[in-house]
Specification:
This protein folds into two domains: 2-68, no CATH class; 80-171. Helix content is 80%, strand content 0%. It is built from six helices and no strands. α4 runs antiparallel to α5 (111-139) and α5 packs antiparallel against α6 (144-171). The chain starts with a helix and ends with a helix.
Length: 173
């Protein structure tokens, strides 16, 4: 009984060794073909039909081809574009209420905006809008939820500013 067990174990080890060598050779030829710009099938030589060829080699080639497959295209979160549009609208509304309020005699509480004046305020609004949207665009392929949270938080903060500007305008009418 022990001799049969040793024979089966030795045969299994030989089968694993042969199949590993054949698989490594097939993967190496596939990588060489990829480096040369040819499909792997052109350079892979036929493998003799053995048990090792039918078990491990196709699996190794399949895994290698799977690793070379291009990644699936990412899908933009559906809420991201409406958040961009609302952010642009809120920035425009903030700019409008700020300029109208300043014309009616209100004071600008933001020292940076007050120091920039009219043209500087527009430039700062455009740059901050573009920068925020650019940051969210760079963020969403890797962290889509974080990009949505970023845009929702920025929209919420800007909505609060726009509401405050509207209440100041109502006092000056």
């Amino acid at each position: 009984m022990a001799r049969w067990l040793v024979a089966i174990l030795a045969g299994s080890l030989m089968l694993i060794a042969v199949s590993t060598a054949v698989a490594q050779e097939s993967v190496a030829s596939a990588e060489t073909a990829e480096a040369a710009g040819r499909p792997p099938a052109e350079t892979t030589r036929p493998v003799r039909p053995t048990l090792a060829a039918f078990t491990l080699v196709p699996v190794n080639l399949w895994v290698n081809r799977l690793a070379m497959a291009p990644p699936a295209p990412l899908r933009r979160p559906r809420l991201l574009t409406p958040l961009y549009l609302s952010f642009i609208g809120l920035q425009a509304g903030d700019l409008y209420t700020t300029t109208v309020g300043l014309r009616q005699g209100a004071q600008e509480r933001n020292a940076l905006i007050g120091a920039l004046g009219g043209g500087g305020t527009v430039a700062l609004k455009v740059l901050s809008t573009a920068g925020t949207i650019f940051a969210a665009e760079r963020l969403w392929p890797h962290h889509p939820v974080r990009a949505l949270v970023l845009m929702a938080a920025v929209n919420g903060a800007l909505a609060a500013v726009a509401i405050h500007n509207g209440s100041v305008l109502n006092r000056y009418r």
